[in-house]
Structure formats: C-alpha cells, structure tokens
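Handout, tutorial session.
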Amino acid sequence: MKRLSILLIFIFASNILNAQIIENNENNHLKKFSIYLGAGIRNVTENKYEEVYGENNISFSADIGLKIYRSLELFLHTDYFKADGELTFSKENTTLKIIPVELGIRFILGNNIIRPYVGAGMGYYIYKEENYIGTIDKNKIGFLAEGGIRFFVIKPLFIDLKLKYISLNVKNDENSNIQLGGISYMGGIGISF
C-alpha cells in the first residue's frame, strides 16, 4: 500500500509538472517583434588606434528584431561609437566615430526565462576620423558574429547581455590595412511583442 501511494503521488506530481512545462512552452514562444536599447564597451582591434584612443570606449546601440521562422529572428542593428583621443606625436585632439547599419539573422534557443542566442550578419559602416591633420570620412562593408543571453524577468521585458565581434578592414591614406572592428560587450533592456 505504501509503495502504491508513493507511485500515485509520483505520477500525479509528474503530470502536474509536465502540464506546467507544456503551458510555459506555449506561453513563452518567440514573439513576432523585439526592440532593444543598450550600451556597452567596444574595443578596436588595431593597435595604433588603442594607442591613440585607448581601450574600453562606450558604444550605444539599438536593435529591432522580426521573427521569420520558429526560433529565427531577422535583426536590424545600429550603434553610435565615438572615441576621443590624442595623436601620439603632436598630442593634438582627435575623434573617431563609427555608425553601422547591420542586418543579420539570430537563432534564439529555448522557450524559457533564459534564452541564449547566436547570430551573424553584415553591416554598412560609416566611419569618420577628425584631427588637425585632416578628416577621413569613408564607408565600408563589414561582417559580424554575436552571441548572448536574454533574461525574461517580467514579460514582455527582457535584459539582454551580448558579446559581438565585428570584422571591418579599411585602408588609410597610406593604403595600408587597418582593422576598425573588434569585440563589443553590450547590455541593455528590450521588449518582445
């Protein structure tokens, strides 16, 4: 009798847990749209730029996502990156701005409160460097890969933490390659509806 009671309690508890998991999966599916605003740290890979502008410069970002199939999301992303520094020899002020328009696909895993994701895409990068020597104002296509986690604390709001790598090779006035891409660490808040 004792074994039968334990077995019945186990079966009953399993059914309740299974029903809760099914209900959560139906309620937590990927919504049609997501909007995200955030900020983070962006590092430029090029050693010369780290000497002039330093490391860990702030970047502000915005992201719009559109569900295209089950766990796939098409995203449109932009950043505003501005770094102030001083030239190595003359110590004159210099400013670098990079504003991208990035388009890509993101694969969001899981249907729970914590949702990891990976994504990739390409971007059109507008960059401008100004100092007393002159102004460089150019555009270039680059590529990106990202990975992150969305925490759905209060539906439909989420906290997004992401790591993004950008590959952006440009040529300077001396016709040598410079890597303006690098790693970004970002965090922000978003809404999914």
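The second record follows below. Compare its token runs with those of the first.
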Amino acid sequence: MNIVYKTINLTIQPNQNFAEVKTSLPYGKCIGMTIITTTTPEPNEIVNLTILDGGNEIVEGSDFRLSKKTTAGKWIDSLRPMSFNCNRNITTRLSSENPLPGGLKTQVLYYIIQQ
C-alpha cells in the first residue's frame, strides 16, 4: 500500500464569496481530508467546502471548519473521513452566501491510498 497526498491552495479574495480550483487526483482512494486556514480572524459565517466531479457533488457542501483536523487519536484518525475513488479530475470549491470582507486563504489536503 502506498500513501499519496494531494494539496490544493484555495483563496476567496476579500469582498468575494466564491473560489474554486480544478485539479487531477492520482489513482487510488481518498480516505481522508483536512483543511487549514491562515486567515485571522476566520469568517464569521458559514463557508461551504464542496468537492465536485463534472458538476456532480462527490462531497456535499458543509462549513469548512467541519473538515479541520482534530486532536484525537492517530494522525489519520484526526482527518475528516472520506471514501471516494480518485483517478479523475475534481473541483474543490469554497462558497459563502455573503461576500467575506477579509477573504479566506486555505489549503486542502487529500489523503489517498494506492493498492
């Protein structure tokens, strides 16, 4: 078994409410993901993180904070659990209902196993 990480830098610019990045995931299965942000303070409203393949949701949008690494257990156990096949192009999207005055700068990490 081989482990591969794929990172995506994703930034909502100040006074905007949307950002997305298209990328290709390598062969394997994504079993976990996490997100970090360097924006301080973080936005004071819900900012959905959604993963799509050709416009179809692979991971339904939910606030990005639900995908942050936790402090419990082993490192892999601290990631948000995922279960989808890779070897395809995806779109990683951040969106909010209202513009974010301070924007939001993030990095998403996909944890992929190859067997």
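Points raised in discussion: Residues 27 and 87 are 4 Å apart (CA to CA).
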